[in-house]
Amino acid sequence: MIYLDNAACTRLDERVLEAMKPYFFDTYAVATSEFGYSMGIDAKEGLENSREGIASRLGADSEEIVFTSGDTESSNMALKGATWALREKKGKHIIVSKIEDFPVLNTAKTLQKQGFDVTFLDVNAEGFADLEGLKKAITKETALVSIQYANQEIGTAQDLKAISEICEEKDVLLHTDATHSFTRLPLNVKELPVDLVTLSAHTIHGPRGIGALYVRKDTPITKFMDGGFQEFNMRAGVENIPGAAGFATAVELVTEEENRQLEAMRNRVIDRALSEISEVTLNGNRKKRLPQNANLTFHYVEGESVTLHMDMRGFAVSTGSACFSRSLEASHVIRGIGGDHERAHGSVRFTFGRYNRMEDADSAIDAMSEIVARLREISPLAKK
Amino acid sequence: MKVERKGETIKFPYSEKVLEHFRNPHNVGKIENPDGKGLEGSPACGDMVAVYIKVEPETKVIEDVKFESYGCASNIATGSVITDLARGKTLDEAKKITWKQASEELGGLPPIKAHCSVLAVEGLRAAIRDYEEKHGLVTEKEPTTEDVIRRRLKHVMNPLTGLDIIRTNLILKTSVEDGVVRVVVDLPADHQFASAIKEDVMEKLGALWDVERVDVVFTA
Q1: A259 in the same domain as A320
Q2: pLDDT at B97 over 50
Q3: What's the pLDDT score for residue A33?
Q4: Cβ-Cβ contacts under 8 Å for A154 (sequence gap 6 or more)
Q5: Is B113–A323 a contact, with Cβ atoms under 8 angstroms apart?
Q6: Is this complex's ipTM strictly greater than 0.85?
Q7: Distance from B173 to chain A by nearest Cα, in Å?
Q8: Which of A229, A253, A277 is the last residue of a domain?
Q9: Considering only CB atoms, which chain A residues are within 8 Å of B157?
Q10: How far is A60 from chain B (nearest CA, A)?
Q11: Is the Cβ–Cβ distance between A212 and A74 less than 8 Å?
Q12: Best exposed site among A80, A98, A155, B57 by fewest CB in 10 Å?
């Protein structure tokens, strides 16, 4: 199987597993205080080293990294935690972009049901957030803005600098979901005034079930899950120390060289698809996008048929077609960028990872050429 | 307590038969100058199927039948099997072919995919109806009622969800009086899908024999 769905999940790197093992079999105690027993103190040290590693990649201080169970929890914590803390002080208004991934989008919808006023900010045809609209949407009541760094489907990377400057000027908290961009695109919280950042290990060959939320010092967050006093009393529950060690190692293993390799594969898919197959539209911006993501609409064919044919030939890819989703809903991202059902119908996402090679990009496009030609032969819409 | 898992299947959802028809669909293509042609679905709203038939004028037997699909695996597989079933049958026999029969022939289809495959069955029926209308064979003309309207509108997809506009409560009100049909759609007129839905609704209702005009009204 040539796996080109690395945005959904990635193969674990063996080196990550090796880094995790000691915390399963040798140092398996919970993290204790310095007055605890030695195994607990060692476990605590392991946890803090992992925290330090992730913090330094982000330009953050160690105490600003809170481990969670993944990006879904991180985004829930950011949105619920900040709005609950600020509902009296600031107000009950938040702004999220229309094309956020489900953790942010659906948390915003839940807050809406609980009486918050939510602005779903428009994006343009390439998926860039409407900055003028953002300026206008922010009011004195606005507690939080949440705009992702890069999109899960179409790969568009936002101008986070401009967004953070607007929020800083208007004195509003900014959360960004960096699940797909962390280590793939530069982000330094010393240089950018973002307050909350969602991170996850599963997209970078780390384990599932571990993520983190960057919380800038003194950012008001109400604890949203009750329990013990772990993680600076911000996130209750026994710490996932093996997960944290795996996450830190996964972060360490991503190099700029690797990102350039992914980018080359991405470009190969985009360039070949656009030049060799007719009636293809690129979704998202050509340059300002995740290095690992290519998303294209192959007009007059349906995405589930494409993915099934690709699967039969040994490729794993994904589509925004309604037919592919469990809910039978067409991609909210493609619709968010003004695309119609037809644009989502034929959209196919290729996302690359460490274990892909350039031959994979080439053979995927070779297969796509044949599949699209075959499906167009039976399509009533295609010009023949 | 028994927990129902709506629309979710744990194992691979398609039978070997579905996959075989999907891989190598039968009766694919267009018939030039067909005796009857049916088109169901619309590109703006999701899957689409075209069915073409050639009919022996004396015996009313379907001599040739072909289909085209802009759809998912269920849609393609159903198109393939339904055209197999229709070939050699008289129009009256072919009209009676149901989605259930097609589904059984295919070894079962996932329930969530029903609407994609029903489309192919509707396509065949539309092609037969087209032939009958052209040849003056429609004897009992059913008057257009609200019931007929709602039935036809079940074939218009709501692009916001991929499900039909009746099921998703997008149609607030329908009425019919003196050949004028009025449909109220629960969307603002400037909504990005308003024109696609309007076009689709007009197409579905405009062809009814006793309908002279279709007014599609938006709520804002």
Answers
A1: yes
A2: yes
A3: 85
A4: A99, A127, A283, A284, A289, A293, A295, A333, A334, A337
A5: yes
A6: no
A7: 24
A8: A253
A9: 341
A10: 41
A11: yes
A12: B57
